[in-house]
Structure prediction request, 381 residues.
Amino acid sequence: MNLMTQIASMVIGFVTVMLATSLVVSVLVRVVHYLGDKRSQTLGEMLGALNRAFRANAGDHVLSGDRPQTTFVLDVLSYPTLHLSSDLNAVTTKGTRYLDVQGQRKALASRVEYLTEENLIEIVTRLSLADSKAVEDPKDVAPKDVLPKVDRIEDVQTKDDKTKDVALPARWFDRIEPRRATLGELTSYIRTWYKTVEDVGTQNFVLASRHLTAVLSCIVVVFLCLDGIELGVDLYRAPAALTDHLADQGSTLLHSPTQAEAIHPSGQNAAERDPDLKDLESSLIQNNSLLNEPGLNLGWQNSWLVKELARVRRNEPGAPTRGALVLDVLRWLVGLGTSCLLVSLGAPFWADQLSALLNLRNATAPPKKKSKPTKEEAEAA
Prediction:
């Protein structure tokens, strides 16, 4: 193996390890967000801010967390088209025994993590139209303990010129002039709001996610005792079989469900979290298998520094002196710090680098020599 091939194999192996570690961190970030309902809480707060700002702009009396605001948020986030039918059935079935209607609505609302501008406008339109119809024909009003049956949002076409004068549901505000409490006014405000507040809220969520990623990256690096400097040296000296195996594993990681989610962290199509999380266990097992490759020497039991400390403790011949040991510890800390920085760059960054490296290797690899046909193949020809 010549020098350039050796360096290329080392780089591909190093990037594969960084991608696998970053995917572990990505899984942990998603689990933390899932357990804490972070994304759904952020969305609920943003919709509550929208309701308060619209009402205040229209001259309504506004109190943070009041009934109109809470009702608006729950009406939007518990709208059936945002949820799978299985989720609706699970919540309503459980709700008949354990939860009241408000509890059912809160349970559904906590499952929604992202809402586009057009979907929000469509939901508000549908709710306003349903409310105005109920006012005109009270006998069509569904019981309050039954979730409405509605079509998919995509199947409904509404026009602003026909719906702009429709009155908003009275439960969404306290005191607003009728000319201001219309669907057209709210729709126009939503479009303006999405260009400002929603973007700021999304940026804040992304920033918080980056901070969480950085913290978890440091924890995972220390847990694995991932010394980036020593890893590079080990991969440079490693046999071709190990680096080729890592390249094959990296190619598989590029198509894993966890990596696909990491590439699209915006939250789009993330209304149902359970289907997104069902593959996390298999992804963790795959990443763990790669990181446990014997040739990588990851883990405290394989750490070169731990072995050095053990030699010093046993006073073995050739053990490093105190001064050399201090330099070794500093080198180890630099290696850990480097790994923390690199892993915190995120799985999308390492996926892009690995994809480019694999494409370059495939493009520059010499063509495989055709093997000579066997006697049977020659006779068949």
